[in-house]
Amino acid sequence: MEKTYNHQEQEEKIYKKWESSGAFTPHNTKGKKAYSIIMPPPNASDPLHIGHARFVSISDILIRYHRMKGEAVLWLPGSDHAGIETQYVFEKKLKEKGKSRFDYDRETLYKMIWDYVQENTGTMDKQLRRLGASCDWTRFKFTLDPDIVKIVLSTFKRLYDEGYVYRGERIVNYCPRCGTNFSELEVDHVERTDNLYYLDYGTIQIATTRPETIFADVAVAVNPSDNRFKKLVGRTAKIPLVGREIPIVADPLVQTDFGTGALKITPGHDATDFEIGQRHNLTILTVIDETGRMKNVPQKYIGLKSEKAREEVTKDLESAGALVKTEKITHTVGVCYRDKGLIEPMISKQWFIKMQDFATQALSAIKGKKTAMYPKKQEKIATHWLKNIKDWNISRQIVWGIRIPAWKCDKCMEWTITSGEVPQECAHCKHTTLSQDIDTFDTWFSSGQWPYATLQTTKDGDFDYFYPTSVMITAYEILFFWVLRMIIFGLYLTGEVPFTDTLLYGLVRDKQGLKISKSKGNVINPIEMTDKYGADALRMGLIWGALVDNDISLSEEIIRGQRNFANKLWNISRFILMNKKDGNLVKRPRVSHADDKAVLVEFKKAAKKITKELDKYRLNTAAELLYNFVWNTLANDYLERTKSRREPAQKTLEYVLQETLKLAHPFMPFVTEAIWETSFQNGDDDLLITSNWPS
């Protein structure tokens, strides 16, 4: 062995050896227990961030552990087309060239994004290899693979045929900059200070933060329990500037302590107002278009951005004597999760899935322990989401993604739904002139089918053998976005949950506990850390000091400390193995000396505890037990005691080291494999990665 461990010389060479050996692909599965994980697919064209590195570390520890236990292990990798995420990044690049998406037809823009993704695909794959991900690359899937797309389209048609899909006109969260609507989950809510305008509506005064939308008002609402307005219910109010009369209605959704206690109702531009409007059969008017500009208003405001229109309308209200007063208010507003600009609620026709039946099935599966969540507290959060679920808007106004297979008839205006093939005639009136919907599926619609779709399209027998999968490992922040939808689709498509366990891990924060982001300047680049300290050090750092389900504070100091541990393991091994006489594995020696007996007992205790902690997903505890055994029990205690009787203790030293390398391998695969091949490997196929876990 070299005097010092050089990770830069070892890691690429070792990974190639693992991959070429076929160790990542399950072989001879007959009679073996199946253990499978479907990788949450990272964006195909983006580099990995530190959050990705954490899920790789957690997943690979479990994969390597179960592989060494002799199970048939499959870790299926993949990448995501990432819908709006990818298109948003591509549009920023277009903007740098003075272009926008509106300069291209749909087919051209799609092809440009496809080429961009293909050019950048491979970055993520290489980085997964750098981190030591022992996934089966022979089964790699992409969310836009034709066979995956076919399944997604078939699911949509089945949902439609069974009455779960409908086309509805509802209030949606629309981003005028991105040009698409978002689900409520994709909208960030931030606090900010705005003006609250008190306006005179003749018989009543109202308060609003959006005077520019008064032209779309269809009523004024008050709370039925508010005695101040009881005599006004049933009468009319008058919209200033235009003089249109609107009814005064009573509705329990009105907050009596906000503003004047009277709320102007604009169903076309507010979700609460939409709900009130539906209950009172009110007309829906809209005055802001998809670009955020005014329409259907007096001529002087037409074409103005809504923010500018607010200024102009306020001036005119003041001139007309209708502006009673203005005061500051701190409230919560919705912003686009991509560009952080204001979301514009607006009425739009979209495709929806009725979710109530599916939510009931998922609740039953969770309650019946068909799928267990770690930590257990996430079950309560999941239950809350499912009990309060709303119909899911699955259509997006973007080009990049899977286009919805719906064709509208020019004659009867009805929709014909297929599994992707182009219909020759309308399913309702047999007319032959049809046009396809331009919308694409919400990314989560396709990725919600990921476990089912991947195993159905890889190798024969994969689905029957590996489904349901063993555990889904992902961040807790996408519990509803993805995990619950996978459970819903799994139950719907197969009658079974897609995974028996869900392990939801916490966020990676900096050493001050702040969320890592580019804007804060505290980004930790996983590949830079791997280059500097080695993949083993980064992996250990990413599980060190906190339960998997908790947020962790990561710093370069922590990673450096784990690099020191890798060096310690190398130096211990070098000291022990310099006296090893052959490259054979060592059987458990028969010993009589008290120190030898003691170390074997301590090793067995450590192995048992580490195994127990891994089975319970307490990876940090398992890592700390390993660290303490290596550093204290083996190095500081036993190694020191044997220096005066080296020869009789040699076989015990070799055996304990050999078995310790097995315990350490899932956590620090590169350095342990590098040590193993120097003294415990008989032939190229005798790798540590496929050795047996200590019993």
Automatic annotation (TrEMBL):
<dbReference type="GO" id="GO:0006438">
    <property type="term" value="P:valyl-tRNA aminoacylation"/>
</dbReference>
<feature type="domain" description="Aminoacyl-tRNA synthetase class Ia">
    <location>
        <begin position="13"/>
        <end position="554"/>
    </location>
</feature>
<protein>
    <recommendedName>
        <fullName>Valine--tRNA ligase</fullName>
        <ecNumber>6.1.1.9</ecNumber>
    </recommendedName>
</protein>
<comment type="similarity">
    <text>Belongs to the class-I aminoacyl-tRNA synthetase family.</text>
</comment>
<dbReference type="InterPro" id="IPR001412">
    <property type="entry name" value="aa-tRNA-synth_I_CS"/>
</dbReference>
<dbReference type="InterPro" id="IPR014729">
    <property type="entry name" value="Rossmann-like_a/b/a_fold"/>
</dbReference>
<dbReference type="GO" id="GO:0005829">
    <property type="term" value="C:cytosol"/>
</dbReference>
<keyword id="KW-0436">Ligase</keyword>
<keyword id="KW-0067">ATP-binding</keyword>
<dbReference type="InterPro" id="IPR013155">
    <property type="entry name" value="M/V/L/I-tRNA-synth_anticd-bd"/>
</dbReference>
<dbReference type="Pfam" id="PF00133">
    <property type="entry name" value="tRNA-synt_1"/>
</dbReference>
<keyword id="KW-0963">Cytoplasm</keyword>
<dbReference type="InterPro" id="IPR002300">
    <property type="entry name" value="aa-tRNA-synth_Ia"/>
</dbReference>
<keyword id="KW-0648">Protein biosynthesis</keyword>
<dbReference type="InterPro" id="IPR002303">
    <property type="entry name" value="Valyl-tRNA_ligase"/>
</dbReference>
<feature type="domain" description="Methionyl/Valyl/Leucyl/Isoleucyl-tRNA synthetase anticodon-binding">
    <location>
        <begin position="596"/>
        <end position="694"/>
    </location>
</feature>
<dbReference type="InterPro" id="IPR033705">
    <property type="entry name" value="Anticodon_Ia_Val"/>
</dbReference>
<dbReference type="InterPro" id="IPR009008">
    <property type="entry name" value="Val/Leu/Ile-tRNA-synth_edit"/>
</dbReference>
<dbReference type="GO" id="GO:0002161">
    <property type="term" value="F:aminoacyl-tRNA deacylase activity"/>
</dbReference>
<dbReference type="GO" id="GO:0004832">
    <property type="term" value="F:valine-tRNA ligase activity"/>
</dbReference>
<dbReference type="Pfam" id="PF08264">
    <property type="entry name" value="Anticodon_1"/>
</dbReference>
<dbReference type="GO" id="GO:0005524">
    <property type="term" value="F:ATP binding"/>
</dbReference>
<dbReference type="InterPro" id="IPR009080">
    <property type="entry name" value="tRNAsynth_Ia_anticodon-bd"/>
</dbReference>
<keyword id="KW-0547">Nucleotide-binding</keyword>
<keyword id="KW-0030">Aminoacyl-tRNA synthetase</keyword>
